[in-house]
Design a protein that fits this description.
Strand content: 25-35%
Radius of gyration: 36 Å
Number of strands: 25
Largest sheet: 7 strands, antiparallel
Structural class: alpha+beta
Low-confidence stretches: none
Number of domains: 2
Distance between the termini: 74 Å
Shape: elongated
Helix content: 25-40%
Length: about 525
């Protein structure tokens, strides 16, 4: 049987398959374009969310929301090169509960923003169009620095005797270096310092080892690059005069949470860094400063101030940034001679030697909120620090040894040594918030968190005793003189410390360091 001619039979098959292949190809192209649009929407949602996260500066949602859509539209305009029709973005404020975004409004302070980006794609090979949409969540935690302590370099004028003595003793300065106030007005970004020290992260910066001189030189180089030649030259002259040059690590002078690289966006006062490093130069021991003081009624009065710990500087995010105050001990000594009027005595005088020891214990400060703002009246920058003092935040003890010299109407002069008098006063524990809004307040200015001032208690006749039976009149006269003396000590000692250090007997001083930053943002979903 002859074979049939089957030539050309493949043509219908190809025609049928070609139709199918063209349909599949068209579908693939349309789906591919839609997938490209979706990828673009994800990228767009990511970048807009990151931009909007910088608006999360510690203000309530009600304050941010009115301008949020406009900010989103501006970000969209900068990133409008996407596949598909004109894209739109829809922002939403919220908070993060772990990894879950929770919408927020009203007085709630948002810490995250969710952005939904959408577009549509016209199909090329089939009728109609398809939508493409993606969401992104970005979070921001404003970062700031604050200083807390009983001693801060900027509590005194830059050229004060106190600061000159402090730096001289701590650094073993080989020459006289003046003009410290020039450093008190200058700040340095931690990120710039980290770059100078080849440290790319907070952890690397905190672990960086160098000497005090090398630190001063590094800061000077940063200031020079930033155009502050005068401050850089001054700091170079300080380091050149340093006689004590131990090694240190940055974590000994600045407290930052490990892994919180956003803290590098903070700025720190240069003089704070200089004084903190100077204290480390003592090997961790206290620095004793003899101060000239005048206490009414005391002759030969001297006041030795012992700064036990370095100034405390902390940088980072709210609720994670903690500093503890330095401890201070002040010892006042002096002598008092006063005339007394006693019955049946021709003349009487009392000589007293007074030793007063004031101890200020630790206080802990936790930054609880941060608002970046722009430092204007309409958009103030702000930090809130909660300061807590322990159960015995401060105490003052006085020891008085006195002798009574009398000349009777008839008989030889007599000198009687009175029993020592010991007085004790203590402060009270407290927890309070220090809110620093700039303006009307200012950076680099001390704002106090303190409880009742520590003071010596009043004396009565029952506190006075001595050999033999002292008459009530004698005890009352002695108590009057000693009471006047303790009042002078209270006023003189505390006023001197307040004037020289800007501190309160019970509590701590808080400085907001310029300027809070909201530039640290990250995608969270």
């Amino acid at each position: 049987m002859p074979r049939r001619d089957e030539r050309g039979a493949v043509v219908p098959l190809v025609a049928i398959l070609l139709t199918t292949l063209l349909g599949v190809t068209a579908l693939t192209v349309d789906i591919g374009v839609q997938r490209v649009a979706r990828a673009d929407m994800q990228a767009l949602a990511d970048v807009v969310a990151l931009d909007l996260a910088r608006e999360l500066d510690g203000r309530a949602a009600s304050a941010i929301l009115p301008g949020l859509q406009a900010a989103a539209d501006r970000s969209l305009a900068r990133n409008a090169d996407t596949a598909g029709d004109a894209a739109s973005v829809e922002p939403e404020l919220g908070t993060l509960d772990g990894a879950t975004f929770v919408p927020a409004g009203g007085a709630t302070v948002p810490d995250a923003v969710r952005v939904t980006a959408t577009t549509s794609v016209d199909f090329s090979f089939r009728p109609g169009s398809g939508g493409a949409g993606r969401t992104a969540v970005a979070a921001a935690s404003p970062v700031a620095c604050f200083a807390l302590g009983s001693y801060s370099a900027r509590a005194s004028s830059g050229d004060s005797t106190l600061l000159t003595t402090y730096l001289g003793k701590a650094l073993g300065l080989s020459g006289t270096v003046g003009g410290y106030s020039g450093l008190a007005a200058v700040d340095v970004r931690l990120a710039d310092l980290a770059s100078e020290l080849d440290a790319g992260t907070v952890d690397e910066l905190l672990a960086t080892g160098l000497t005090v001189k090398e630190l001063y030189v590094a800061i000077a180089h940063v200031l020079q690059r930033n155009g502050d030649t005068a401050a850089a030259t001054l700091l170079q002259s300080v380091q050149a005069a340093v006689g004590v040059n131990p090694s240190l690590t940055i974590d000994r002078i600045v407290a930052m949470k490990s892994g919180d690289d956003a803290a590098l966006l903070s700025t720190v006062n240069v003089l704070d860094l200089v004084v903190a490093a100077a204290h480390v130069a003592t090997g961790g021991n206290f620095v004793t400063l003899p101060l000239t003081t005048e206490v009414p009624g005391l002759t030969g009065a001297s006041l030795d101030l012992q700064v036990v710990e370095r100034p405390q500087i902390a940088c980072g995010r709210a609720a994670e940034t903690v500093a503890r105050t330095s401890q201070v001990t002040a010892v006042l000594t002096g002598t008092n001679t006063a005339a007394l009027t006693l019955p049946d005595v021709a003349s009487a005088s009392m000589t007293s030697t007074v030793t007063v020891r004031l101890s200020l214990a630790d206080a802990t400060g936790t930054m609880t909120s941060t608002v970046c703002g722009d430092g204007t009246a309409t958009s103030p920058a702000s930090i809130t620090v909660q300061v807590a003092t322990p159960s015995s935040p401060a105490s003052v003890d006085a020891g008085v040894t006195a002798s009574l010299a009398t000349t009777a109407l008839a008989g030889p002069p007599m000198t009687v040594a009175l029993d020592p008098v010991t007085l004790h006063g203590s402060g009270t524990s407290t927890t309070q918030d220090v809110v620093i809004d700039v303006p009307p307040r200012a950076f680099d200015t001390a704002y106090a968190a303190h409880s009742n001032a520590v003071a010596l208690p009043a004396l009565s006749a029952s506190d006075v005793s001595g050999p033999g039976m002292l008459s009530h009149a004698t005890k009352a006269a002695v108590a009057t003189v000693l009471g006047s003396l303790t009042t002078s000590v209270n006023d003189g000692l505390l006023s001197v410390l307040s004037a020289d250090l800007g501190l309160h007997a019970s509590g701590a001083d808080v400085f907001a360091l310029p300027t809070p930053s909201c530039a640290g943002v990250a995608l969270r979903g």
